[in-house]
Specification:
Two copies of one chain form a homodimer. Chain A has helices at residues 64-73, 94-98, 101-111, 114-118, 152-163, and strands at residues 5-12, 17-26, 35-39, 50-56, 84-92, 126-131, 141-147, 171-181. By secondary structure, chain A is α+β, with helices and mostly antiparallel strands. Chain A has an eight-stranded antiparallel sheet with strand order 4-1-3-2-8-5-7-6. In chain A, a hairpin with an 8-residue loop joins β2 and β3 (35-39). The longest helix of chain A is centred in the C-terminal third of the chain and has 12 residues, at 152-163. The two termini of chain A are 29 Å apart.
Chain lengths: 184, 184
């Protein structure tokens, strides 16, 4: 990851992923749509229901030791067996963003175990984080997950563990979008 | 700072600041222009020579203790006596961005003293950092400084100290633009 990668998620009548459900976990939901596409700088065809932009960029809290373990454990996107996906856009509170780096890191990992709790799930669940806050978007982060149907229960446990953490008290808006890959 | 603030620097035939000189410190320079304007989401009138976009956003390395001291020492922008300004756009190397957070922090402060060296100058020199990397801009950071003519020497010392630090070995492009406020 030497250059940031701009990614647009477009919900509309067509796309590689069929939307199974959209759930508002905290705050306002997103409009109902049937399909989702991922692309880099995709032009809007005028048919989209909603679009969310983010940037895959450098890590913000991860230490060198954690990064090494994460990279070793993380599968790539696009595995043939990963027919399930989730897009979870999140916005954190103004109080979160007014904290200094060491305070945010302490909540994120030392007190919430964000990385430690995610690590056991990584061989099964592929994950890519997109930063959106500095783009003026309605969410701060868009996290994209891909997994095989047999790991759907594991994914539910991961999401439940993170939502029960201290870090999640700072989440003021969260939408959970579940998807199935369209047969090719 | 609860919401990121988008700022556009526009060089062209008019603006609140007259450009005295543009110096390439590392890598490619920027085209010659006579004036610079700062604005939020300014439309391009078609007369601009170049435009650089950035976002004033949350701090990335500063600890809570450092942030408290920085906030206490930092003057606001727009002081009547601050007739001099500098805009210093910087791009860091791919190697910098591939480091983990703790490695970048160690170079930034523990080994280079970026905050510690800047602190003594802060009562005289106002400073605002704009993040640009995730916007797909040619620079990673745009730092804007304002100071009174009597503090011009102090500003040169600050810039020289930072450029001599280990952190600056990771700077692969740097342009130094010096400005004078246009009489109102």
């Amino acid at each position: 990851m030497t250059q940031p990668l701009a990614v647009t998620f477009t919900a509309g009548p067509g796309g590689d992923w069929r939307i199974e459900r959209i759930t508002a976990v905290a705050g306002e939901s997103l409009p109902v749509a049937t399909h989702l596409s991922l692309g880099n700088e995709m032009p809007d065809q005028g048919q989209s229901c909603w679009r969310l932009r983010g940037v895959v960029s450098h890590t913000r809290y991860t230490t060198a030791g954690e990064l090494k373990r994460l990279n070793a454990a993380s599968p790539p996107l696009g595995r043939p067996e990963a027919l399930c996906a989730a897009l979870i856009p999140i916005r954190k509170s103004p109080a979160w963003w007014s904290m200094a780096q060491d305070e945010r890191r302490a909540v994120f990992e030392e007190r919430s175990g964000h990385i430690a709790k995610s690590m056991p799930y990584l061989p099964a669940i592929a994950r890519r984080l997109h930063h959106a806050r500095d783009l003026g978007e309605p969410f701060d982060f868009l996290t994209w997950f891909e997994y095989a149907p047999e790991h759907a229960d594991a994914f539910e446990r991961l999401v439940a563990e993170l939502r029960a953490s201290e870090e999640w008290r700072h989440v003021e808006r969260e939408v959970d979008i579940r998807l199935r890959r369209v047969a090719r």
